[in-house]
Predict the 3D structure of the following.
Amino acid sequence: DVCSSDLIFAMSLLLIVPGIIFGYKYFFTSYIIAENPQLSWGEALKLSDKMTMGHKGELFTLSLSFIPWYLLMVVTLGLINIYFLPYYNTVIAMYYYNFKARGLQTGELTQADFMPQQTF
């Protein structure tokens, strides 16, 4: 039945699309922890969510720009990773610093966000 296959396709998209959005929500968590090891993972997750709020499309576009590199990785059996991995990691780190600076400049983030929350 055509209708049921359309419904199955739509339902599978409902699992994939939120998963992608969820992944971009916590895109910078490891960078936040690396720069601020005093933060807990929960605090870093919240901060990453705050940093990417309204900018997930920008991160998605960035990810799409790496598709040719991934294809080249397949063609070269991974040898291109010698050049690609440092490039990729540098680009992502620069995006992290850009998002952080933009958030601090616009007031969406404060320096206090990067300090551990004291619980008594």
